[in-house]
Specification:
single chain; about 475 residues; alpha/beta; 8-stranded mixed sheet; about 15% strand; disordered N terminus
Length: about 475
Amino acid sequence: MIGFPSRFAACASALALVLTTPALAEDLVIENVTLIDGTGQPNQTDMSVGVEDGRITFVTPTAVAPEVPGRHIDGSGRYLIPGLMDVHIHLKGARGGDGRRMVGVDRTNPQATPPPPAQVAADAATAHEAGLEALASYLYSGVTTVFDAGNVPEHILGLRAEERAGEILSPRIFATGNLVTYPGSHGSGMAIEIDDWSEDKPALLEYLKEQKPDIVKLTLDEHGWGTRPLISLLPLDLMQDIILEVNRHGIRTTAHTSSELRATEAIFAGVDSLAHPVIQGPITEEFAKLMGAKKTPMATTLTIGEGYSRLVEHPEFLDQPLYQASYSAEEIDKLKTETLPAWKERGWTWWMKLMTPVAQENMRMIDAAGGVIAIATDQTLGPAVHREMELLQAAGVPAARIVTIATLNGAKHLGKADELGSIEPGKLADMVLLSADPTVDINNAKQIVWVMKGGELIDEDKLPLAGGNFPLRREQR
């Protein structure tokens, strides 16, 4: 029996209500701003954007903007973009630094003796704090929406409930909770395992009912690449049965794949999005055209592999302001003194350094062919989103395209493009004001003046950042 507090299910089932009736926010107008609306159209200068009750009410040239009450913000010399998105994270906190499970029951060892109640409470509090710090790092980095693609349900679903109730400072959280896959396949240790459809379908239905996943993640990968040994593979007919049943419940699916073959099979099994790029080798032109034709969104997740050798060879990136805010001094010291030498000795580090440029070019080709790629990191830190965008720019993807990839394409990946991802009337007012133009250089997306979620300006000095307290970046509260 998969048991969770009733508030998890209640908050999840109320998602539509949350998206259409956000918390009341101060009515305001951003004036004289250069608008980069996320749709891909050219920058629009001297624009006004109205916000009321958490939604965008009008987008128009300032010269003809309606006179409305509320706070007026002068955006002269600045650039307004939609809130950034990370459509593949695994939020930290569920396990401690020593790998010990901090919340929930270990599915791989359900008969294990539970720790004393006092330790359970202390571990849960520690996990919760770690999760809040990571979520704060996303907001501080301009990320207003995340999708957790697999986690301990008791951890991520609790935070999802708190976010939707307005109880924590957090980007919008979409989550899958447990994965769904075949016994012994990728991620099976944290998955609902489906072996025989007729026998195991009730377990899937119970998972859908109890966890209320926003998207169900499956895995289709037998490994046997890099330094990974071969494992079991989810049969395609079983994958089709799972996808069909999940879609019949009105829920989208995504799939972990790593090769052109498995990505193609997942698409034709009916999956709604892909959780990774092709990393095993160069894609064919035919696959790029297929992605352009099918428009199946694909998450980028370049920085998870590139991050190993980056830390070994260029640890100075940790001195950047966003990382200084997102990591504690102790975490940075541990990364430099313990993690770095350990990763230097791993074959996986250098295999991923070799293959990351291949994946970068694969992403460029798919975007150029008209496919839908969406920014995703496979990590648990806001600054990683900016590194992901840097890697796309280094691959030759134009900076203006990357803004769309990090915003509207993310919303398409989540199936929420009607509510999120661009600055258009009627959509939720998730926006970021920048002091430099990200369409000239995507690194300018780090020049954040303020972040807005649901029409409310985020008070950065109140964020529980691991790096400590930081002052507001805007002139006035």
